[in-house]
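Changelog-linked ticket: 4'-deoxy-4'-aminopyridoxal-5'-phosphate example.
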Amino acid sequence: MKSDPRSYRLFQRAREVIPGGVNSPVRAGKAVAQDPLFIEKGDGCRIYDVEGSEYIDYVCSWGPLILGHRHPEVIKAVQDVLARGVSFGAPVDLEVELAEMIVEAVDAVEMVRMVNSGTEATMSAVRASRAYTGRDLIVKFDGCYHGHADHLLVAAGSGVATLNIPGSPGVPDAVVAHTLSLPYNDIGAFESLMKEKGDQIAAVIVEPVAGNMGMVAPEPGFLEALRRETEKCGAVLIFDEVMCGFRVAWGGAQRLYGVNADLTCFGKIVGGGMPVGAYGGKKEIMEQIAPQGPVYQAGTLSGNPLAMAAGIATLKQLQKPGFYQALEENSARLAEGLGRIAQRMGVEVTLNRVGSMMGMFFTPGPVRNFEEAKTSDTDRFAAYYRAMLEKGIYLAPSQFEAVFLSAAHETADIDTTLAAAEAVMAGL
Ligand code: PMP
């Protein structure tokens, strides 16, 4: 285990007063037997721990930092707002601006409501869907994580997968009785469920690019099947693009795959690193939300100006010509390089990638769903993780999280990472 005396002392203090010493489970590093590093600052694609050690960061705050740390335009936008105040709990122009940007960028979104986290976004989208259809059942897919609302903690990926928590204690059976979970990418299983129960289903929620069981791409025809069957049955199709929205493409996964959802959830990138979520979609569904309609959903700090400013400044950078192309080229360089090295070293891996989201599984593969993701040798991943950390490469401390690139990762940083991976794999 990498030792860092200051992080160690902070973690001991933290464990006395914060459950597990962290405010979100995977950060604790249990799955890789590595205590967390406490981070002092970030700059571009690098982060620095409290001892001053430097790392190339592939967590990017779990996805939001597509521009890297401390992008000057984002920092400036936040500072400008900060000079005027932190929060007013009254409408500000920035909320309108960000909503307009999202509506313009995502074809299927006509109206959008800002919230404070991805969890709130998916929870609210499900509520809106149930109200709209007058039905209770929701369908999700194994290994997809949609935040920690009770009714969505069924066969969830991310920390639930990492920690082997089956659902969660504290969630009443009656609440999850209305949630059905199916294997990801299994069109046949989905079609037969819809045939049997389609008229009772309020919503089908999916990560159109799954990033919470490692990284799993939708197989050709999967998203199309979800669209076709939900339309047939009058169920709402919810794309949870909290992670992949504005990451895999401008306009999100639905632009990339040409399949539109009825409701879309956002988070991460649209908040530029601030606590933000958003859900939006068809007017006839969104018009039910209070105060326009009867479906209640609110938030003291929702749409707060600091977060809106960071989100707007981030999206403006993504709109620049060539932004996604450059990110794609660097992401391909990393993934292809890792694949070549693993092959040369005789380490069996499966590399999945969509744009700047990727996952490397220690299994011959393929990895198309949660069952296949779980065939990965997690002990081997843990050894790889710790050795990479020793070499200054900061990965998410779980096999079941995605790797993210930012625009601040340059060719030289990727080559440094590949050199580290080569040395590490030689010793695996
Ligand atoms: N949906 C997806 C696809 C996510 O990846 C996450 C978080 N990683 C969430 C929802 C929940 O978002 P938050 O952690 O902001 O509540």
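Closing comment: Example verified and attached. The mean pLDDT is 96. Residues 72-318 form a domain with the Aspartate Aminotransferase; domain 2 fold (CATH 3.40.640.10).
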